[in-house]
Amino acid sequence: MKIPNSTTCLACGSARLESFYQVSQIPVHSGVLVKSRAEALAFPRGDLELAFCSMCGFIQNRLFAPERLDYSVGYQETQGFSPTFTGWAKRLIQQLIERYGVQEQTVLEIGCGKGEFLAELCQAGKNRGIGIDPGLALEHPSHSGQIQWIGGVYEDHTERTREAQTVLCRHTLEHIAPVGAFIGRIRAAIPPQALLFLEVPDTCRILEEKAFWDIYYEHCSYFTQGSLGRLLRAQGFKVLENRRDYGDQYVLAFARADQANQAFPEENDLEGLNRLVRAFKAAAPAAIQDWRNRLEAWHQAGKRVVLWAASSKSVAFLTSLAVSEEVAYAVDINPYKRGHYLPGSGHPVVGPDDLEQAPPDVVLVMNSIYTEEIRRDLARRGLQPELVPLR
Ligand SMILES: [Zn+2]
């Protein structure tokens, strides 16, 4: 899909955009790891300038160039190794089955990644699945059963939507720039009574917490409950449920193709969002400088500082701060990430078993929801570094 114009809102079409945050020359991918430090340092880069639409609340990177990204490259994005994340997926599957009757249906997942969630939903609810993801062009998941895997982008396979009683789109819409046109395509193809489930990061939390590490090039689109609800209604959906979950980190919307309904009270967030954007604009530079100072102080004191998780957040944290030897490495429990390097900053990725060789003094926990899980893991290894959750 071509981006028509970066001066209008790609959710509602309004020209009332206001830029409020810039980062230059950040890696175009942050969810992918590379095999050498040289490759990591030479990784393709792009610029980011976030703009807020005062009509619908949608936030977009107006400098985003989708042709720079290639989602068919080998991705290691699975979070299936964390008990916290696996528990979350199980709860969500139970809800889809019990509250929305996703049982013995055909379920289409747009951007299914490696397909773990779809496979589990199909197994638990005796559903048939259709999984679409550009990454599937490279390798097909080993989950057997009633699932058809399609390697490619949804735009080339929209006709498959007509077979579905449930359409899932989890952590994908934030990677799509023309979100209005994208939801419009789903609407044009989705059967009348089918369920659409969307899950995206919540931008209110990012703004409130000045969480600049949650802003990166791959994420060109940023939603709140309000802007997601407005987008769905504008494209001809009735919103059945719209809430925050996973420690308020995600927005979850359940909708059906139907006449648009009244907004829920918590979706009326335009005024508050306007204030949050202004507060973020004023405070983000100081928040970034504060982190640089803290890392510099630890470095001067001879402390070994490491990041827990080799994730998009870690890449964004390091490249937004433009730090290097102040951080030693990133740890990740996903064994496929070990031995790789973070794009942009070039930090090595180690596994938890490697920690004893170079024990950390300070562990920056990139996602605070995992803090207790990490504390237990370190304690089992006889390590008691200072744990600093990023807030
Ligand atoms: Zn808008």
Automatic annotation (TrEMBL):
It comes from the Bacteria. CDD domains: AdoMet_MTases (cd02440). It holds the Pfam family Methyltransf_14. Residues 276-379 form the C-methyltransferase domain. This is C-methyltransferase. The lineage of its organism: Bacteria, Thermotogati, Deinococcota, Deinococci, Thermales.
